[in-house]
Amino acid sequence: MLGGLGARGAEQVALMAVDNYADNLESAVRYALLTTRATAVCPFHPDVIIRIGDGSAETHACIRARNIIRSDGTRWTREALMEEMARQLADAADGECPPCARSRESHA
Ligand SMILES: [Zn+2]
């Protein structure tokens, strides 16, 4: 129960920390990836973004990002979104949080 609450709490913090996410390319892409579950924030390390590795979730994230409307009424270009999404997915930890994986190994 605690773990579930923690995961949701961390995600909310990550989303709410961004005020006008739509007007910032990095934030818009992060929002699209998190809300489609293409990526997740580690419940124990809120600064660690984990790439789930779900291809259909990543496709949904692209679609969601392209539908984000900025405060001036325009949208991000497909090229800009694809580039930033590729960058964030490359930066994300693959499948599991590295600090969590390390602490599991050291306690094994
Ligand atoms: Zn972690």
Structure, described:
This protein is mainly alpha-helical. The chain has one domain. Helix content is 57%, strand content 7%. The protein has 5 helices and 3 strands. It has helices at 2-16, 25-35, 55-66, 78-91, 98-107, and strands at residues 39-41, 49-51, 93-94. A 3-stranded mixed beta sheet has the order 1-2-3. Helix 2 crosses helix 3 (55-66) and helix 2 (25-35) packs across helix 4. The protein is elongated, with a radius of gyration of 15 Å. The two termini are 23 Å apart. 19% of the residues are buried. Mean pLDDT is 87; it is low at 1-6. Bound molecules: zinc ion.
What's the SSE blueprint?
Layout: H1 2-16, H2 25-35, E1 39-41, E2 49-51, H3 55-66, H4 78-91, E3 93-94, H5 98-107
Parallel strand pairs: 2-3
Antiparallel strand pairs: 1-2
Helix pairs in contact: 2-3, 2-4
The protein binds zinc ion.
- Low-confidence blocks of residues: 1-6
Structure ligands: zinc ion
Number of strands: 3
Tally of structural domains:
1
Helix content: 55-70%
**Category by helix and strand content:** mainly alpha
Query: What distance lies between the first and last C-alpha atoms, to the nearest angstrom?
Result: 23 Å
The averaged pLDDT comes out at 87
Q: What string, H for helix and E for strand, traces the elements in order?
A: HHEEHHEH
C-alpha Rg, in Å? 15 Å
Morphology: elongated
Biggest pleated sheet: 3 strands, mixed
User: Which strand order do you get reading across the main beta sheet?
Assistant: 1-2-3
The total of helices stands at 5
Which band does the percent of strand residues land in?
5-15%
